Amino acid sequence: MMPAHFALSDAAIVLVTLFAGPALWRNGKALPAFAMACFGVAASIGVVRFGGGLQDALADLHAGASQFLGLAGALAVVTHYLFPPKGRNGIAIIAIISSVALAIFWFAKPLLGPLFLLALMIACVASIVRPGPTRPLWLVPVACAVMLANTLFIRRAAWLDEAVAWHAYHLIIALALAALAKGLMPVERSGR
Asked: Domain residues of the chain, as ranges?
């Protein structure tokens, strides 16, 4: 059984997404706000799982939600750059992203990981090729690259203790999500 302190690093993701998601939504960034919600819900299940002593009872739900919602969140970020919605009409795109991610989760589970990584790579490149009117321009591609490297090298690192790998992975995700949100926020105009 995993100790309750595993909930702490999931809680960091929850806190970032609770602040970033609504801020992105208020600024007309529906798809990135949806991405924050996806990561936040998956992490919330982890907080309840470990904080509530329900490690075994919620293990499958937490793993499934993390995979499904992680893919949906990554697809939302890449879609934000490839097919940007006008204003807040992203609800239809969110429904499509959710349906595609759910179909992959149910019918092509071995593709979840590779598609998540591919979505992060495309988001990284797309944010460089098609930057938005935000500053600094480097935050979004760096956030995507950090999430990609984190998934590849930290998530199940044999060279790290299980608890260290868990906390490092989740804290790096929280920092990458904060950088992503900051990089997607519109530039504030100075009063000068």
From this structure: 6-184
